[in-house]
Design goal:
- The chain is of the alpha/beta class.
- It has 3 helices and 9 strands; from the N terminus they run ββββαβαβββαβ.
- The strands form 3 sheets. It has a 5-stranded mixed beta sheet. A two-stranded antiparallel ribbon has the order 1-9.
- α2 links the parallel β5 and β6.
- α1 packs across α3.
- It is globular.
- It starts with a strand and ends with a strand.
Amino acid sequence: MFFNQLLDPSQSGSATAAPTIRLQGLDGQTHDVSALRGNVVLVSFGATWCTPCSRELHALEELKSEFAGKPVKFFWVSIESSEDVSNASLKRYAKERRITFPVLRDPEKAAYVQFSARLRLPLIVFFGTDGQLDAPVQFGMRSPADLYKADVRARLHKLLAGGVNRISRRF
């Protein structure tokens, strides 16, 4: 299902329930963002063929280290089909990039299309400790990496402090 998403929380409209991200991980577990209330959650959608996604993963791994011991969870979601990239290839990709956070699969893009009707990678979504989506979703990776990390770091700190910008949607 596609919809127009309001990315400006100041616009009128009632907030709806948080989007559903419940995906299978390469670790064999099903990861459900809604079960992580009490944590700030960052979910990055990408693909192995996406060069900015690879650079972003390095930056996110550095940020994950900075937030160790804090209630912040990181996930990377591959939107590629298993015909395009096998689980073994995806595991190798993650190992080569030294990704220590869970790698999930969204081959039908069912989770992805809740945030964007067109393919734009990388895409990051943030959830506050209350499980609600924080606005706006973030497309692309800002250069240089230090500025990008500063933006993401500030957003994570804001969410840890309880600040959330709600997204409302029109169908």
